[in-house]
Design a protein that fits this description.
The protein has two helices and 15 strands. By secondary structure, the protein is α+β, with helices and mostly antiparallel strands. It is globular and about 70 Å long.
């Protein structure tokens, strides 16, 4: 998208930690090193949620591009552009995106596209837990109002599938893009996902069983100390003064002891998994008369 109205295409990116990045197109046709987007006061823009995506679109009818952020877990956020189309500047505090009924819009990426062919850009979103949802635009392209969520792809039931079987459909943390893939005049869905497929290692040898047995007491003792450290830390959550430094230090020290033991114990697990990511194509079917 052309972020600053200078006639070339730039790249906007979200991040796991919530910061937003701009990769600006340069005169040679490449892209500059990514930089943080800043608010109108020069501070880093940062989402309230983590693992965010970002799309630039005018949502308040003032002819500039605001930022709409999808998130893995939290609600969709909007950073209002208080600058101009060519010199964006943002309110440093985001607001939740709401439906016309006042409900929060939720989804793991917020993508605007005309799904129902009425000329209005709707909101199509993936989900942390799988599936794709559609929020129909009831108003206009530069001041949208959204209907309640309707599923385009239902969330699948979780199954611990084996590596040899492969996937059977889109998994979790879905990200969606709308395009007319087969040029039939109907919008289709490209859906990215993440999935874990499992496999089983051969049984432990007698030597490995003995090694595991010898390591178990130290591992369980370290795990108990770590659990106690977290319980101590959690006892301060929500209380005046916040979490004291000694609580954080207890977790750091307990983790330092537990972590290498946990790595050693993990090699005895017989069930392992590989992380995969696929892109799925869902073609929209023409409506059948009478249905």
């Amino acid at each position: 998208m052309d972020y600053d109205a200078d006639g070339d295409l730039d790249i906007l990116s979200g991040s796991y930690t919530g910061e937003l990045y701009l990769f600006e197109r340069n005169a040679e046709g490449g892209f500059e090193q990514g930089r943080y987007l800043l608010d109108a006061k020069g501070e880093d823009l940062k989402a309230k949620s983590s693992s965010v995506t970002v799309e630039a679109i005018d949502v308040d009818a003032d002819d500039d591009l605001d930022l709409v952020l999808g998130a893995r877990i939290g609600a969709v956020e909007v950073f209002e552009n208080v600058g101009t189309r060519s010199s964006p500047a943002y309110d440093g505090t985001s607001r939740p995106l709401l439906t016309a009924a006042g409900d929060r819009v939720k989804g793991s990426n917020a993508h605007h596209a005309d799904w129902d062919g009425d000329g209005l850009l709707d909101l199509v979103l993936g989900s942390e837990y799988g599936g794709v949802n559609w929020y129909r635009n009831l108003a206009s392209n530069n001041a949208p109002k959204y209907a309640a969520s309707e599923p385009l792809i239902e969330k699948g039931e979780f199954k611990q599938r084996q590596e040899v079987d492969g996937p059977e459909g889109a998994g979790s943390r879905t990200k969606v893009f709308v395009t007319d893939w087969n040029h039939d005049g109907l919008p289709d869905l490209l859906v990215g996902d993440v999935q874990w497929l499992y496999y089983t290692l051969p049984p432990l040898t007698a030597e490995q069983e003995a090694e595991k047995l010898a390591l178990t007491p130290a591992y369980e003792a370290a795990e108990a100390v770590l659990d106690e450290a977290y319980e101590y830390r959690n006892s301060f959550v929500g209380k005046p003064g916040g979490i004291p430094d000694d609580a954080k230090a207890r977790i750091d020290e307990a983790s330092r002891v537990w972590r290498p033991l946990a790595r050693k114990m993990a090699k005895f697990d017989r069930t392992k998994s590989n992380t995969h990511g696929w892109v799925w194509l869902y073609l929209q079917q023409p409506a059948v008369e009478g249905e």
